[in-house]
Amino acid sequence: MRKIYIFDTTLRDGEQSPGVNLNVQEKVEIGLQLEKLGVDRIEAGFPAASPGDLAGVNAVAKAVRNASVIGLARAREQDIEAVREALKGAQDPCLHLFLATSPIHRKHKLRMEKHQVLETAEAAIKYAKKYFDKVEFSPEDAGRTEIDFLIEVTAMAIRAGATVVNIPDTVGFMSPSEFGAIFKTLKEQVPGIEKIQLSAHCHDDLGMATANALAAVMNGADQIEGTINGIGERAGNTSLEEVAMALETRQEFYQAKTSLVLGEIYRTSRLVSKLTGMVVPGNKAIVGANAFAHESGIHQDGMLKEKTTYEIMSPETIGLKESKLVLGKHSGRHAFREKLIDLGYELTDELVNLAFAKFKDLADRKKQVADEDIRALIEEKLIET
Ligand code: KIV
Ligand code: ZN
């Protein structure tokens, strides 16, 4: 089974979510939890962005011992120097350089011709290699870059000494088949590609970030970049818990796995939500409040008979105690009776039927019926009889 390296960028791209600002202590707290989760690489920030971010990256670099700590830099010497400063004390430092390559970015943002992009990136990688063994290079907006130019850029990055080439779908424009095809082409056509790791970095503008990352895996990607809870610039990044659980649940299909400690997923998600202030939507895959909750009577009956009828993974795997059977207007007698037993009531069939009718009336009026509602309803029925 092939190992997929997990590059977590919650503290960098994740922190680029509008309204999120983590202080040094919060970055360290999340960094240490990511270490417990077993991620291979932690991008702790963009040191040239501000003195506070440099301090945050430095504190994470000193605290984390069991994952490589990474700082982001533009293809400029001052940015590389800021990362050098920030990664002092890191056990396994790595520099992440980026420069845009797509025609739109070349024309409007960089105002550079192709040859200037190649020269600038090459000079920056060579400069970085004087100080770092591990250098990742990202051709920003690779998804919208001409494939021939992307091949040329990747080959240049390998010759200049990059150890990882990351392919970002910066604006979340790709579909899984297109994104997968880029990896296939690079693997087949770039000389020396076997010497480096190829990585995927996806954004979720069209809701494709996880699907695109998995398409990259199917086509030879060695590393997936993403964030916890999928937070990040605009619609966010690939959600790492989704990738990890997709590979875990469909191991035979993907023939690949991560070395994440899956039982730490839920705890990590809660911590990131608390410290970033970004609420996890109830229906979010894997970590949303409803991800292991069942409301309809048919589903609850199935779950009570055999959990695999409606669950493809168990909540315990991600560190949750159990699935929830939520009582509402779609719930059936089977789940209702189980709830009564849980609450300590052993009633005759006749009483259960009477209480169930009352419960349905109440459920029509309330979205969810809580344990206290059921208790009140049963006590009332017991007094009446
Ligand atoms: O989305 C992007 O292109 C990035 C790069 C810095 C890798 O975040
Ligand atoms: Zn990004």
Automatic annotation (TrEMBL):
Protein name from the UniProt record: 2-isopropylmalate synthase
Top-level taxon of origin: Bacteria
Cofactor requirements of the protein: Mn(2+)
Organism (species): Paenibacillus eucommiae
Pathway: Amino-acid biosynthesis; L-leucine biosynthesis; L-leucine from 3-methyl-2-oxobutanoate: step 1/4
GO terms assigned for molecular function: 2-isopropylmalate synthase activity
The keyword Membrane belongs to this UniProt entry's keyword annotation: no
Residues of the full protein shown: 1 to 385 of 515
Domain Pyruvate carboxyltransferase span(s) in chain numbering: 4-266
The reaction(s) this protein catalyses: 3-methyl-2-oxobutanoate + acetyl-CoA + H2O = (2S)-2-isopropylmalate + CoA + H(+)
